[in-house]
Amino acid sequence: MSNGVDIEVIRKTYERKTDEELVRVVTQNSAGLTPEAIDVVKAELKKRNIDASVARSVDAQNKQYTIEEIDAYCAIIQNLPCPVTGSTDEKLNATIVAEVISFIIFTNYKKKMLIASPDALDKANNNALVKTAILGWWGIPWGIIKTIQAINLNIKNKRSNRADGPNDYLRGFVLSRVGQIEAFKDNPNKLAEIISL
Q1: Is residue 148 pLDDT above 80, yes or no?
Q2: By C-alpha distance, which of 133, 162, 134 is closest to 150?
Q3: pLDDT of res. 2
Q4: 3 state DSSP class of 166
Q5: Pair 58, 30: CB distance under 8 Å
Q6: I want to staple 116 with a disulfide (CB 3.0 to 4.6 A). Which of 23, 42, 46, 84 is the partner?
Q7: Contact 184, 53 (CB under 8 A)
Q8: What is the residue-averaged pLDDT of the chain?
Q9: What own/partner pairs with CB < 8 Å and gap ≥ 24 does 165-169 have?
Q10: Which segments of the chain are extended strands (E)?
């Protein structure tokens, strides 16, 4: 297939999407697009009069960042109200909460990211520690192994919940969602949806 045919396929694919689908795809999945595909996407957005911030999200996903630039995006997230408490007293950060529940031959090891205030992050890690310490050991053979892993992960993660700046979990989240953050950085309600994992 020639490059011209490929571009035509891309153009038709984007033309078939509703405005909502187009915005979702462009803000979340534009990393790695060729320059030609980026031009097609931007032309389709312009044709539909979709806000220019969505087109900027394409560029944001196809850029190399310095730590300062990543931290500037993190600051946007950190200044939102806590999705758990609604408070704006503390800057948000992120953690991974790990829980293990075991029943004889069944062990369920669950990890999830949480973005919230340091108090809410500590509480989530503590709750996971207690739940895992009570319910995690009872599976053979994985209960003991996974319980130790989860306890260690929660204890380790609590150390970064109160970091002065964004921690590595928040930076990783921001890099994975940089297109959405760029597109909606002036829309706190939309950003609140993005961080409510």
Answers
A1: yes
A2: 133
A3: 42
A4: coil
A5: yes
A6: 84
A7: yes
A8: 94
A9: 165/71, 165/74, 166/70, 166/71, 166/74, 166/75, 166/77, 166/78, 166/93, 166/94, 167/93, 167/94, 167/95, 169/93, 169/94, 169/95, 169/96, 169/113
A10: 93-103, 106-116
Phi, psi of 104 (to 5 degrees): 50, -85
Q: What does the pLDDT read at residue 7?
A: 86
CA distance 79 to 53: 20
- Token pair listed for 120: 């809410």
**Matching residue, tokens 């220019």:** 52
Query: In this structure, how many other beta carbons lie within 10 angstroms of the beta carbon of residue 159?
Result: 11
φ, ψ dihedrals at 96, nearest 5°:
-110, 130
Question: What pLDDT shows up at residue 5?
Answer: 55
Tokens representing 93 are: 């950060």
Average pLDDT over residues 84-109: 96
Residue with tokens 């293990």: 100
